[in-house]
Design brief:
Layout (H helix, E strand, L loop, with lengths): L5 E5 L14 H20 L10 E10 L9 E10 L3 E10 L5 E13 L4 E2 L4 H11 L5
Antiparallel strand pairs: 1-3, 2-5, 3-4, 4-5, 5-6
């Protein structure tokens, strides 16, 4: 199993289910959003303020390995595995908290974003330092 330093529990709701009684793929995107937001709050040591947030999701891909069912008790594991000048890459997974079975794997890219100019901007030195320290990433 991959090494993750951050995990958040996920509550499955009935409205997350599709006609096959699996958790809908779109609902799983929300689970990854939850994990990503909670990760950023923990690592950057600041609550996400949705009126001023300066991070934007610029890429996402998901591999659905096993169906997520209503009775499953799941968690979302999250980590940053690559830091760039303006962005970072994350890997996340939805996993059964009891068996460890990986249900879905997600890779994404998050970019720092200037809300006034609507353009990307470099990650702050503090953001880079905090992510490096948390993940043990030594260089850009």
């Amino acid at each position: 199993m991959e090494s993750y330093k951050f995990t958040v529990p996920v509550q499955i709701r009935m409205s997350d289910l599709d006609p096959f009684v699996h958790v809908n793929n779109g609902a799983q995107c929300h689970y990854f959003d939850l994990g990503r937001s909670a990760y950023l709050e923990k690592v950057l040591q600041n609550p996400v303020d949705w009126k001023t947030v300066n991070m934007v999701l610029v890429h996402i891909s998901m591999d659905f390995k096993r169906p997520v069912l209503f009775a499953d008790e799941i968690v979302c594991d999250s980590k940053v595995y690559e830091l760039g000048v303006r962005s970072f890459k994350m890997q996340q997974q939805i996993r059964d908290m009891h068996t460890g079975e990986i249900k879905t794997v997600c890779r994404s890219a998050v970019c720092r974003f200037d809300r006034q100019t609507l353009a990307s901007m470099p990650l702050s030195d503090e953001q880079v330092r905090l992510i490096r320290e948390f993940e043990g990433i030594e260089t850009l």
